[in-house]
């Protein structure tokens, strides 16, 4: 049910990459996820052996590195990445506010029992922490303004947000609207925006490429059996030194810190090494945008 997981599935389809699908529980506890990440609880993550990539912004970069064409980052669209960041944050929050009305929640969660609904609400409240939640009146006004702007852009440009082919911005906007579609009793909102609706149909038609199921315990075993990690290094002049004890946490919601030894740092990503009794030695990678690195003064 994760919109961000749908974003990654569509990017895999765009790239034509085969992949293995691991089910992540919608609420805590997530013992197999935590064994790999060290505390990061959001869905999805990308695992390549004992390298764990958190946040779809960094996952997209890794998919681009594995399969450069077709590109997610055309040189002709330098604003695609900032627009994607806006969509993954501002647009996403407005879309969730609209979709998670009572009728939408029932559709997304499959007509949940009161106990399931209470557990989901408790989990999301803990995940949100002190981050304010949009009210429905405020969220509706904001969402309609966003959708009208996107619809106008597509009506005058198109067929994609930045021209002739999809890019990272399309996938970041698209997963938010896919989530509204999932909330079928309230999805009628999208029909007010015909250019956007036609664009969304084109995007979802890309599909998810080819996947096979993998049990989450087996994913942990894959990490434990890995014999190495992707090469990373700590670049000078960025405020940290190789081998420092650090923690990394999101700056919005789901801000559970991941502690470890700093082994990689650049303007785009940060990597910590950590050990787990089940997963062995793993490298956990995060993007720089949306995350904060802190020195662990207690280590």
Can you tell me about this structure?
This protein is of the alpha+beta class and 299 residues long. It folds into two domains: 3-68 and 211-295, 3-Layer(aba) Sandwich (Glutaredoxin), CATH 3.40.30.110; 80-204, Up-down Bundle (Glutathione S-transferase Yfyf (Class Pi), Chain A, domain 2). The chain has helices at residues 3-15, 31-37, 56-66, 80-99, 102-109, 114-128, 136-156, 168-182, 194-204, 216-225; strands spanning 19-21, 45-48, 51-54, 211-213, 245-250, 258-265, 269-276, 280-287, 291-295. Strand 6 (258-265) and strand 7 (269-276) form a beta hairpin. Helix 1 runs parallel beside helix 3. The model has no long low-confidence stretch (mean pLDDT 97).
Write a short abstract of this structure.
The chain is α+β, with helices and mostly antiparallel strands. 44% of the residues lie in helices and 16% in strands.
Largest sheet features: 7 strands, mixed
Distance between the termini: 38 Å
Beta strand %: 15-25%
CATH architectural arrangement of the largest domain: 3-Layer(aba) Sandwich
* Shape by Cα distribution: globular
The DSSP helix count reads 10
Q: Give me the side-by-side strand order of the main sheet.
A: 2-3-8-7-6-5-9
Key words describing this protein structure:
Glutathione S-transferase Yfyf (Class Pi), Chain A, domain 2; alpha+beta; 299 residues; 10 helices; Glutaredoxin; two-stranded parallel ribbon; 2 domains
């Amino acid at each position: 049910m994760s919109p961000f997981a749908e974003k990654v599935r569509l990017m895999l389809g765009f790239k034509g990459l085969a992949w293995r699908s691991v089910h992540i529980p919608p609420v805590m506890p997530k013992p197999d996820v935590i064994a790999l990440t060290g505390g990061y609880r959001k869905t999805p993550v990308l695992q390549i052996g004992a390298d764990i990539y958190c946040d779809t912004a960094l996952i997209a970069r890794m998919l681009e590195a594995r399969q450069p064409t077709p590109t997610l980052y055309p040189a002709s669209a330098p604003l695609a990445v900032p627009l994607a960041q806006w969509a993954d944050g501002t647009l996403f929050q407005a879309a969730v506010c609209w979709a998670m009305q009572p009728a939408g929640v029932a559709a997304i969660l499959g007509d949940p029992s009161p106990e399931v609904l209470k557990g989901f609400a408790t989990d999301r409240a803990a995940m949100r922490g002190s981050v304010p939640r949009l009210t429905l009146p405020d969220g509706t006004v904001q969402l309609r303004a966003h959708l009208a702007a996107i619809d106008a852009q597509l009506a005058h440009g198109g067929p994609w947000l930045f021209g002739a082919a999809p890019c990272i911005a399309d996938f970041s906007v698209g997963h938010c609207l896919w989530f509204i579609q999932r909330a079928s009793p309230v999805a009628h909102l999208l029909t007010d925006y015909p250019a956007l609706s036609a664009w969304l149909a084109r995007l979802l038609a890309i599909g998810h490429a080819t996947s096979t199921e993998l049990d989450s315990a087996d994913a942990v075993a894959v990490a434990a059996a890995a014999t190495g990690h992707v090469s990373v290094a700590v670049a000078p002049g960025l405020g940290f030194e190789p081998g420092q004890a650090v923690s990394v946490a999101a700056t919005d919601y789901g801000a559970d810190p991941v502690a470890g030894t700093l082994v990689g740092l650049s303007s785009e990503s940060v990597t910590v090494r950590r050990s787990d009794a089940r997963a062995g030695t793993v490298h956990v990678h995060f993007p720089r945008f949306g995350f904060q690195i802190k020195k662990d003064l207690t280590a």
